[in-house]
Input
Amino acid sequence: MDNLDNFRDEVKTRLKALNNPSLAAAFAIRAGLRVLPILACGVDEGQEFLWFWKKRDRTQHLLALLQAYNAACFFVIDPSAVIAIRAFAIGEAAIQAADTICADASAVAAAAIHAFAVTRAAATQAIEPAADHAARVAVYAIYASAHTDALIDLFRRELKILTKSSNSSRYLQTDLRYSLPSSVTHFYSGFIFQLRKARVEGFDYWANWLEARWQGRAFDIEHLKQSVLLDESIILNPRWLTYGVYTLLYSKQLERQAGQLREQEVPDILQAQKVIDNLGNVLKYPHDKCRFIIDAMVQFQLCYRTDQNKKYGYHYWYKTTTISCNCVFK
Output
């Protein structure tokens, strides 16, 4: 433990010397996301996915941690958009997620909480608390992974290449996978598998999101902004997006139009029928929120944008735009 305390002081000192709160936030997000998949712990031994949380809380707690990282990423990508830090409900929900009967899972959740806290400090350009929270993320990540020396070495190498003039946005959007212990990457594969197998329903989007972060793919900034600013009722129900996507993909109108939809037809389809999730919740799709669904589909290659002449191009997005969906109707 003394070793970790000393390392926390080392990280804090280094980040304070850089005097760049946004860079401290990027470092914290990267450190925390590397160990987030450890939430799949115990599955190989026959435990249920997320066994350390009560069943009724699993969806809410996992979503809170993912949303905390999502909001934190938005601030780093666009530091002027301090509105991202309005998502205090996300931070409070993440704190509740840290209450588990598994020490590793608690450490993973604590890393997410402090990563979110870094961005709140960075929003006011407060380097002292930003560096302190970022250092705590690193320590919680090391504790959760049980690979002290490997992660300390990894974090030191990352800190060594950072300078006061480093671009925090570019640094955030680089590959997370290098030099990780094999057991951590194993958890990553298992975590993505569990999300895709709908063990926690509605998390297909977040499986894609996490894959993109680990692989260092660039953010769609407008989509990222929308995801942070969604209503709380939508943020806290991952099925809202999943059910919206499948309502579109399997709509009769899309089938009749050979996989082509105009932008203005999307809310019409989503509002034409009552959409009810597996828990009996009626899902609402306001007109101004439907763009988020289409952006998510484009980002994860479920559809692509074209102009009226069917020329492919993601940059075409006007009222004349059509949406071509890569789907097969039986």
Summary: Strands lie at 260-262, 275-276, 282-283, 303-306, 322-325.
